Queue: 3 jobs
Job 1
Amino acid sequence: MSMQETISAERIHIAWFGMRNAGKSSLVNAVTGQDVSIVSDVPGTTTDPVRKAMELLPLGPVLILDTPGLDDEGELGALRVARTAKILAQTDIAVLAVDITAGWSPENRELLAEIVSRGIPYVIAYTKSDLADEAMRAARQREAAEAAGNRGAEKSPVVFTSAKTAEGIHDLKELLGTFAPKVAREKMILTDLVEPGSTVVLVTPIDSSAPKGRLILPQQLVLRELLDAHCRAMVCQPEELAETLSVLKTPPALVVMDSQAFAKVQAIVPEDVPLTSFSILFARYKGSLATLVGGAETIDRLRPGQKVLIAEGCTHHRQCEDIGTVKLPSWIEKRCGFRPEFAFTSGGDFPEDLSEYALVIHCGGCTLPEREVARRLAIAEAAGVPMTNYGVAIAYMNGILRRSIAVFAEKA
């Protein structure tokens, strides 16, 4: 997959934080060479996080996140600040923009402490440095080390910048580039499970809920990774699977299916042929498979009156055969013999308090960065609420979960 094709979830997320009118948005525009953010002398111009996918050398494909001011005011301001906190959970590299003429605020110090505690690589970028003399620069350098917990300048990367004169812009980009090895992903979705030259069959149902004219994102990513690894990929619908297998001279190395096709596929694929689902592959890819497998068993312990949250990481138009709001609730009702109370969320609207739920069933998370998936898992763990995902839950209810994850044990 080329840099231009890299999806947002796989890009390095660089989030820019700072007080209102600290020059943060001007700095973003100067670094990117584009008018990513609206710039104004009026404090609070950036009212919601601004996202921009682009290439930023030497990092490569990145997602720029320009956030509202840390000191935003009023009722809406509080909501914006809360949203900024959520952005931190998705951040691979943080840039804290500090107005060199104003110095450090309590909000800046609090945020930096949180960044450091989470182990997120960061840069302190002093803005408007064309207005500062050497004495002020030296003082701000010491303040940066102090704000970071007296870790010293070598552990508190500082760069003096000016969007007006372009001072420090190149240095900031180079400094961001040094973090690339720390945040680069080397994990694979499935090509560590098969050898180059292998044949993998992808079973992809095309129904009314499938996007018109294209495959869904997990299918696209798996297919591209197989091609990059010089594997042969055969794509078919469930109704064509038996014939597809029959034309192969040797059994495929792996069969990967859409979770909705478990019931049909498991009856067709021989027991000695490994199989799994796109959703289970992404549970493993995001580093959460073991937790989600344990959560699936909670389905059989649900009791009438308990609430189940079904959450999706993306937003899309719901249709009559929607898996999250229609099919999953129906399957769970059939499995339990009663219908639990269901709640639904999508996109960034994942609850911070899960205490009212007995179980969370999440989508595969293909559009979410790994940090955000981990954050949601942590929220569930802190609340003592089991969590699973669509594919794992469907495999469990079809009695095929152990078979669907056996391929990972074999390759361990």
Note: The chain has three domains: 3-183, 199-281, 287-397.
Job 2
Amino acid sequence: MSLINQMLHDLEQRRTADVISSPLRGISASASAIQPVGVSINYVALAAMVAVVFTGGVIG
């Protein structure tokens, strides 16, 4: 148990050192951060709109 406690203690020290040294630690540059939260593509609605526009173009 002493080894596990020591590892946890070291991890806690690293986390506090990272927070102090890097104020932008929580910012991510992943692709999911680029797209706003709550925005998703409804493919069924998109396909329906394309079909309506295409059908209108053929008829017109």
Note: Residues 11 and 43 are 44 Å apart (CA to CA).
Job 3
Amino acid sequence: MITTPLGYLLSVALIAAVFGIAERWHRARFMFDYLPAVVLIYASAMAAAQLGLWERSDALGAVYKTAKSNLLPAMLFLMLLTVDLRRFLKLGPRLLLAYASATLSIIAAFVTVFALFGFGAKEAGMFAALAGSWMGGTANMLAVGSAFGVDDAAMGYALAVDAVCYSLWVAFLLALVPFAGRFARWSGAAQSSQAHAGPGCACTIGPRRYWLLLGTAFVVALFSQWAAARLPGLGTTTWSVLIATALGVAGSFTPLSRINGSQEIAGTMLLLLVALIGSRAEFGDLSSIPHYLAAGFAILALHAALLIAAARLFRLDLFAIGVASLANIGGVASAPILASAYHKSLAPVAVLMAVMGYLVGTFGGLAVGYILQRLAG
């Protein structure tokens, strides 16, 4: 049994590193298409916790709390440095309308299904975290979940629903690609075929400045927590998330956005955060997972129905609504794959939409959470 803070951090980091490295190994890519690294990291850390690898002590609990509260705002700041609002707005009215329709339909679907399934206050935060993921990514899920104080076990349920529903949703959208012509004739849309400029982020060019980015990110994390502790109303964690988000967007307009390495560091922080959360999770009852999965599929079905209605109303093609949907639910990892299935020149559109989710996902998830809390009464 590990009893020291350093041993705890090193063992958690090792779990994150093993699966993080394996995900980049080309021979293991097929497995990770269906079981993302974040899910395997969480499951492994949770299993290790149940087997008693780490002592349940105040000292290790304090290390967990400190690491999580510092990593979360630092990660959000680094991820948002690549958001390019100016290029996103240049996508044009049709694609922007498709993106807005996808995001709003996800919000509407979450609220409707939550009410229909009769969930209560206990599940409100969990579904808010899932909504954050389905409008942004896992980083947004952790941010929203932390803001609503979702316990580590409930975050595990959210990750499980996310992984299963997401995998099937990607396969479904890819299977629809051959029907793009028929769909365009039905909706009255002109099919997308023009090439688009690249995403405009120079953060993958030139030497990596890890220490500069790390230093700046942790300064932002410390400032976010300092300022959050002095602001009333929303709670310290929520304010910390919002302040880090605002500073990340502000940083995207500065030379910081052109420094190589921000996404790599943010991705590493994300995996470490997932491992930390898994290391503290305690599952008492797994019988509710099928109920949550049914709700997840119901949300996707309603989201699809609303998107199809928007396509007919606004004359959008299958590419526009499909990529907009996957940019929300799948993020940067999968949206460009779907876009490339239509035409290779369209992949940058998916990247821009998906990166925008880093910003939209946090605010959208928080909005869904407050609505669900009101519904739960």
Note: The mean pLDDT is 84.
